[in-house]
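[SOLVED] Need 3D model of a two-part complex

Original post:
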Amino acid sequence: MSNLVSLGIVLLSAFAYASLQVNLGCFLLLYHSSVGKHIRAKTRTLATSYLAGVSIFIVLCLAAAGFVLLEFFNSALSLWQISALAGGLVAASLLIWLVYYRFGGATELWLPESVKKFLYSRAKSTNNPVESFSLGLVSCFAELPFSIILFCISANSLLSLPSQYQFAGICFFAFISILPLLILRLCLRKGSSIVSIQRWRTKNKLFLRILSGTLFLCLGIFIFVFEVMGKI
Amino acid sequence: MKKREQSYNFDRNALINELMIEAKVANIPLDVSCYISKLVADDVERWLNNRYNITELDYRKAVKEAIKKYNADLAYIYFNRDKIV
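Solution:
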């Protein structure tokens, strides 16, 4: 039962991470600027490097969170720390519902202006796989205010699994998290244009916002019920 | 044109190049994009006739109207390229 609950938390966290939009937006930005400048093969290489950057950042962040929990929190968070994280998830869900997207017709997010400018300038000037890889890292970094709670929660759950499953759990989390990027890449490869994808994102902005906020809220409630109330 | 107290002249070739790049992003064939870009540049040039000082906002509005006439996808991507993230 305990292992199932841990797996459930990891799965829900990964889906919540996958529903965040900065990675997806940066990927589209990179694709947009690269398709205009380079041949298709180079664009594909840049996209692959970007995906590698995002995956490695997620794996490293999760591993780092696990290491911090192991070293400084005796491998498991206390009840009040888990309650605080569950409260943080509920607050994050409210933030996503209310202020994550900018108002208006486009899919702009409430990122700090300097971060936004940096992401745009990096995406435009990316010409080789190393730059693309680092853009993946930077885009994940920009999302940390929301994702850091997910990393802490997932790392806490992964540490309660048997040690042989922990690395597999990290890879599973990373795979689910980059699933939207993989699907997007597949769509672009099959011939969909950025215009149709961006139109779809704009049209379904409300749906994406509600989905993302609901996933955070569900995860918060799930943790509160199974990890806090279950142990009282 | 004026942009935050900076003035610069209309560059037809720069506009055509920008449109060709965006047309490639929108999967528009090269010959079609070349033709559309020239038509848009002609329209904008015609609009600019007898206008000596205009704001960038007016210019962008004129370009948008001109592109919309020929290809909606191109107009969409040209004016939403800074609104993805």
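Edit: Chain A is about 80% helix and 0% strand.
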